[in-house]
């Protein structure tokens, strides 16, 4: 073997080692997820009905009704298990968990249907092209569009005639989380040929960019509008520490939402916004070394404040796509770092524990005293999504089907 051949062989061997290390964390996580999600699936299907697991608290799995905002994540998790393993068994169960959400396509009393239907039916459609699923997505987009307020150019998030939202003096509240509904709207335009849905999504993204962000690109949780004139009436929080603080998961929804808006429109301003939001998140002095954020960047008890693993998982998934769209390796390095952190016993539950959920230590809403430092189904959903995106990138593919060709 001459020197040149030996060097080439050495480089190939090193690449294989680094590739194996990268692949190993994915493979190892898939093996772990099979055990955990398998157990959770079995529990949720015990008895006569299919139930929707959302969390594990006080030794019990918490189940939610179909109209809860988190109702689509477990079906989506099962679709991701199918995508990660290729095992038809997961697709059969995913389908069962998806179709119990059938009535949600008509839900108009809150905005979260993008999460609920795109993560369940949307993934099922993408992976299996099941007849009827496209119609469910389009009908859901139509229902969501009833919440569009043309005078203000936004989709109203919450109604103010019931629950704790009725006690805040709001008129037409929009939360940053609403950026996560836009994927469904863009897809509905692709499926139906009706541009109305994409136009609503673009208007919402533009108004949110105008009104939700501070000069440092952190964002408010809630912006309350006059629905006729678009005047901003309040900027405040519901789930963060304070009106002027940066609630961690809200920043994650913004990062993910503007990355998706760029994927569908190719409009550079959305890409810039996603990068600016990433800049805030990862340069904030309160971001811990392991990149698993405190539940609020301004929580007064940092470094003793709770972490929010769900926020970390959303960030990882968004960063894989952002790395692909910008060609910047630094975003993938950060996403990889998050996956490594979440794969340690500090955040990933031992097999046979945690009610079957993969990850521990997420935060629902501290101000409401609900779901604090517990597993949450959306943390697992975005973690598995991040693993899929990581695997796609490392195999030279676009992380998300539909991402522009490179
Ligand atoms: N979309 C509600 C939340 O992030 O808690």
Task: Describe the fold and architecture.
The structure is a single chain. The chain is mainly alpha-helical and 406 residues long. Among the domains are: 1-49 and 273-406, Glycosyltransferase (Alpha/alpha barrel), CATH 1.50.10; 67-139, no CATH class. It has twelve helices and nine strands. The chain has helices at residues 3-44, 73-85, 88-99, 113-128, 133-145, 182-192, 196-211, 248-265, 268-283, 309-326, 329-342, 377-394, and strands spanning 52-57, 60-64, 148-149, 154-155, 173-175, 222-225, 232-236, 362-365, 370-374. Strands 5-6-7 form a three-stranded antiparallel beta sheet, with no helix packed on it. Strands 1-2 form a two-stranded antiparallel ribbon. The chain has a two-stranded antiparallel sheet with strand order 3-4. Helix 4 (113-128) crosses helix 6 (182-192). It is globular and about 55 Å long. It starts with a helix and ends in a 12-residue tail after the last helix. Mean pLDDT is 95; it is low at 1-19. It binds glycine (GLY). Glycine is lined by residues 69, 177, 239, 249.
Fill in the keyword field for this structure.
two-stranded antiparallel ribbon; three-stranded antiparallel sheet; mainly alpha; 406 residues; Glycosyltransferase; binds glycine
What's the helix and strand layout?
Layout: H1 3-44, E1 52-57, E2 60-64, H2 73-85, H3 88-99, H4 113-128, H5 133-145, E3 148-149, E4 154-155, E5 173-175, H6 182-192, H7 196-211, E6 222-225, E7 232-236, H8 248-265, H9 268-283, H10 309-326, H11 329-342, E8 362-365, E9 370-374, H12 377-394
Antiparallel strand pairs: 1-2, 3-4, 5-6, 6-7, 8-9
Helix pairs in contact: 1-2, 1-12, 2-3, 2-4, 2-12, 3-4, 4-5, 4-6, 5-6, 6-7, 8-9, 8-10, 9-10, 10-11, 10-12, 11-12
The protein binds glycine.
